[in-house]
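Hi all, posting the design record for the shared folder.

TITLE: backbone redesign
STEP: 1 of 1
STRUCTURE INPUT:
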């Protein structure tokens, strides 16, 4: 029940709108979302489908709750769809990712442990859209030189890198 009816507006055609949120215009239609985000993560819809929540789902949900439009791309699932072999499907996944980025023109690309997406693909996307922001989110422990190199290489392309559990190797 609303006690303050001054929040409601009525125009000549008896169309009502609420002027509480600045993202709603005078006729009640929502404006464009705050950001268009292309979120890339493993997904693993076949392997971990019984898990209701994972870190990448929580991140996507947070972006959505902050009124952003999120497009989710599963790099591993896309690669696995190509003849069922991930090694052969990796170039296919990179082509699909570049095509989705060109089509949707996101404001931000959030890369969450998407190791199958090549740095060359990210450079191509950055070349076609120089204003795009890219962030790298890494959630695993960095306990091997290979993982540390992977994070450093991706950090050269992305604007920011977020590490959740790096361990003493980062110091």
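Okay, here is what came back for every position:
SEQUENCE:
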């Amino acid at each position: 029940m609303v006690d303050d009816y001054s929040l409601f507006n009525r125009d000549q055609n008896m169309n009502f709108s609420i002027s509480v949120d600045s993202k709603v215009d005078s006729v009640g239609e929502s404006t464009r979302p705050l950001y268009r985000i292309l979120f890339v993560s493993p997904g693993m819809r076949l392997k971990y489908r019984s898990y209701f929540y994972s870190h990448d789902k929580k991140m996507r949900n947070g972006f959505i709750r902050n009124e952003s439009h999120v497009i989710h791309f599963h790099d591993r699932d896309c690669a696995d769809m190509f003849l069922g072999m991930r090694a052969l499907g990796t170039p296919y996944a990179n082509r699909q990712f570049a095509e989705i980025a060109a089509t949707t023109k996101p404001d931000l690309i959030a890369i969450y442990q998407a190791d199958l997406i090549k740095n060359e693909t990210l450079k191509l996307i950055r070349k076609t859209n120089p204003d795009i922001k890219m962030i790298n989110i890494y959630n695993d422990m960095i306990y091997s030189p290979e993982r540390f190199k992977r994070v450093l290489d991706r950090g050269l392309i992305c604007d920011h890198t977020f590490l959740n559990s790096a361990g003493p190797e980062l110091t």
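COMMENT: Residues 86-104 form the longest helix (19 residues).
Let me know if anyone wants the other runs.
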